[in-house]
């Protein structure tokens, strides 16, 4: 696949005397994204250095053209700025206790990690024991271990996983009110029903779509075993509005008919402010425009100490 990409770039840069108009057109139509998607999806064992070499060997010479630089920079400027923000962040990462009856949010370094699945976190031995005995983790620990292995494997290191979590949170904050409004519309029959928000990064700029839990299971999001969805569904219900399932779909991998790598990244909150706001607004009126929603939501009183993390 990388060989094919080299041939395409060679044609664009060399064919007909190296007319840069061909490259400009290709860049404007997503050449960089296509190369990265093909390389990561079809060659999971390919080292990043091979992709670096491809980009440097063929695209670096094109940087002498002023008008090409604008197109190339615009293709990844926003993500590069987020990378810088991620590297320069001064606050320590936070996590939430996965005993959803507790749901305490604290510095991740102070939380206990389950030694079995290496995924679930707890604020105390008491919470861990409670979730093991009555929260369902005893039955699901091995399954969540498999989910972790299928996402953060050797071809997708932990730093990439951490950055995806950071990126999704930033995209959530940027579109938060629109997401809440769309969720309210999706859950028109029962605003207290659990929802799944898909953050789809497979085609470049993120596309954000809400589903009901049932709708997500019935559609192509069912890339995990049914028991995993059922476990999360129970946890969302038990959290009383403090947990919402967010899914990140990335342009690499292929599983059960779903083209892409999928991460479950729950939104955790210290209060049920969002759920109560949705319920309250739904009781006032069945439909809202975005401007009306923004005005009404802006008047909502945020509880003291309300925190949202991914």
Automatic annotation (TrEMBL):
The keyword Amino-acid biosynthesis does not apply. Gene3D superfamilies: 6.10.140.2220. InterPro entries: Znf_MYND. SUPFAM superfamilies: HIT/MYND zinc finger-like. Residues 99-141 form the MYND-type domain. Keywords: Metal-binding, Zinc, Zinc-finger. Signal peptide: none annotated. GO terms for molecular function: zinc ion binding. The keyword Zinc applies. This is MYND-type domain-containing protein. It comes from Mycena metata. The lineage of its organism: Eukaryota, Fungi, Dikarya, Basidiomycota, Agaricomycotina.
């Amino acid at each position: 696949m990388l060989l094919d990409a080299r041939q395409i770039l060679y044609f664009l840069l060399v064919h007909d005397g190296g007319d840069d108009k061909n490259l400009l057109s290709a860049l404007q139509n997503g050449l960089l994204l296509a190369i990265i998607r093909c390389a990561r999806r079809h060659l999971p064992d390919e080292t990043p250095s091979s992709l670096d070499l491809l980009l440097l060997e063929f695209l670096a010479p094109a940087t002498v053209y002023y008008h090409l630089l604008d197109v190339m920079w615009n293709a990844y400027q926003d993500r590069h700025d987020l990378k810088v923000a991620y590297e320069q962040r001064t606050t320590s990462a936070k996590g939430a206790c996965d005993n959803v009856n507790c749901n305490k949010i604290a510095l991740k370094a102070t939380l206990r990690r389950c030694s079995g699945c290496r995924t679930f976190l707890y604020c105390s031995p008491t919470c861990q024991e409670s979730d093991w005995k009555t929260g369902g983790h005893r039955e699901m620990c091995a399954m969540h271990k498999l989910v972790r292995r299928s996402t953060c494997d050797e071809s997708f290191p932990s730093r990439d996983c951490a950055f995806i979590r950071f990126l999704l949170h930033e995209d959530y904050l940027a579109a938060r009110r629109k997401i809440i409004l769309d969720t309210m519309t999706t859950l028109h029959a029962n605003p207290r029903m659990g929802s799944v928000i898909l953050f789809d990064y497979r085609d470049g700029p993120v596309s954000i779509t809400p589903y009901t839990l049932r709708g997500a299971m019935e559609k192509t999001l069912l890339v995990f075993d049914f028991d995993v969805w059922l476990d999360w569904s129970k946890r969302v219900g038990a959290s009383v509005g403090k947990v919402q399932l967010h899914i990140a779909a990335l342009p690499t991998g292929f599983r059960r008919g779903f083209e892409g790598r999928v991460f479950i990244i729950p939104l955790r909150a210290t209060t049920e402010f969002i759920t109560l706001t949705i319920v309250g607004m739904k009781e006032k009126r069945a439909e809202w425009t975005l401007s009306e929603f923004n005005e009404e939501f802006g008047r909502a009183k945020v509880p003291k100490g309300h925190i949202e993390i991914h």
